[in-house]
Amino acid sequence: MATYDLEQQEQLDQAKHFWKTYGNLITWTLILILGAYAAWTGYLYWQNDQAGKASVLFEEIDRAALQGDTSKVALVFKDIREKHPGTTYTAQAALLAAKVQATAGKDEDARASLQWLIDNGKNPDLVAVARLRLAGLQLDAKQHDAALKLLDADLPEEFKPLVQDRRGDILAAQGKKAEALQAYKEAWKTMDPAIEYRRFIEGKLTALGEPPAASSLAQPAAVSAMPPGLAPTN
Question: In angstroms, what CA-CA distances link 112 with 33, 50, 78, 95, 137?
Answer without folding.
Answer: 44, 24, 11, 11, 11
